[in-house]
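U., I forgot to send this yesterday:
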Amino acid sequence: MMKLAFIFPGQGSQSVGMGTELAAADENSASLLRRADGALPFSLSELIEEGPQEKLTLTYHAQPALLAVGAMIASKLNDAGIVPDYTAGHSLGEYTALVASGVLAYEDGVSIVHQRGLFMNEAVPAGEGAMAAILGLDADAVKVVTDAITKEGHVVQPANLNCPGQIVISGTKAGVDLACVQLKEAGAKRAIPLDVSGPFHSALMQPAAQKLQEALDQLTWQDAAIPVVANVSAEPVTDSAEIKKLLVEQLYSPVRWEESVRQLIDLGVTHFIECGPGKVLSGLVKKIDRSVTVMPVYDNDTLQAVIEASKGWS
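Result:
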């Protein structure tokens, strides 16, 4: 029997204009952007539509923007009768998954990821931290190099375990720059700086954890109607108290994406729909297991293609 997962991208996928075509197609989608505007101290819809990209990329802007667009796409799929058996999200995308699974109300989701972004920026102001994708080395080889650099006083560590041969590192700008050089010397094919504004999923995020915990405690939580595979554990969770605990740990812990995808496949998932701008997660899933079906939805054409394809699912 076919099983379906909705997956939601994290920071780095944002682009000016994302979701605007989808929002223009129906009133329900347009209303989601207006509701986000009402939940935030700035006009998210204007920022998404007009940019500039540099402003949209700031973590406290990118997070609510990506959540709003991902939630809009999931809602459109639900309206078409396409409902997942599981959800998962990459880093920030985990919050979008929680909205799609009924754990958080939409406005609460938009608001909390904006706050999360502020806490993260306060922990390490934009420009002082960095992240980079390392291609062609396994996680153990990457960790040997990053541990040595951290011992020298420049914090850097594996942050996203994305797929075979792709590990993202995170830390101080100096630490990441040093690691990129040394990892290429150790055999990495490439070291690619990422378009993010901070050292996410590293020990440098620890100062933000207590603030995030206090903010999460102010929200209303429901147990998940649809199980969510968590970044920290790579296991499906439904209990809201456990989900809150994992979200705090997620701030400074690696995103175990490859393990999460393999877990979903072990649970019987054969089809993945990436709900959000771009095709980053679709590419990662195919590198993890080429036998599964992966479809990105980011505009009206891709939405209609998935709706049409779903008619043959059983």
